[in-house]
Write the structure tokens for this entry.
Amino acid sequence: LKTVDLKAPNWNFDVADLKAAITPKTKLLLLNSPNNPTGKVFKRDELLEIAKLAKEHNFYVMTDEVYEELVYPPARHMPFSTIPGMKERTILVSSTSKTFSMTGWKIGYALAPAALTKAIRIPHQFTTFCSATPLQYGMVHALRLSYDYYHVLREEYSERRTALYNLLIEHGFECKQPEGTYFIVANHKNLLDIPDTEFANWLIKEVGVACIPVSAFYENPEEKALESRYVRFGFCKDLQTIAAAAEKFKANLKPALAKAKK
């Protein structure tokens, strides 16, 4: 397994890094867009570059597109399989966990050419086999909802995104509004210049707000933590919860920083 880092602050990948990771043994590239944890939605030119390499080196692309409905204008999600020549090379993986808040149900699905789905089902039969039947019926009902559901979903998450973004900016974090997902990655260096793992522990203990160190998403998290100053916050909560976090920041952040910098 080889990984290619997305580089802060815009979370772009270096094409040279991707090319260097490809060998004659490369059979599959795993692509997550919209991306967790960064909120990045891969642009058309980036996807075309990946498609070009897939053709040149004859590998498949598995796309994790579980946040496909949580994309905020002007960003647009482009399913990788819609690129000319990629439908027969793509295994699209999605889920009801994010779009329909069925996280604990663990209901997902894969779309691919028949030969590939047959290969997927063989090991699947002897591992997960299937999800509980009543939950599958629930998923079918969700997938039949009208477009109005998706419109309201994006409106509500857009409001929460703005609320969390304004909160983080107000209290000294550096961040951008994400193009997709329900996460904001924020730089905490201006508050405390310490490894992201230490900052996450400090924030929950001293301020009472939880976040995830971005280093946890890298191949070598302990090594990455030493240089990373990024943490991930989620706005998959109601506005009241975000407001409660704002109150904790307002009451606790300055005293906690003063104590930490003594």
Observations:
- Residues 147-260 form a domain with the Aspartate Aminotransferase, domain 1 fold (CATH 3.90.1150.10).
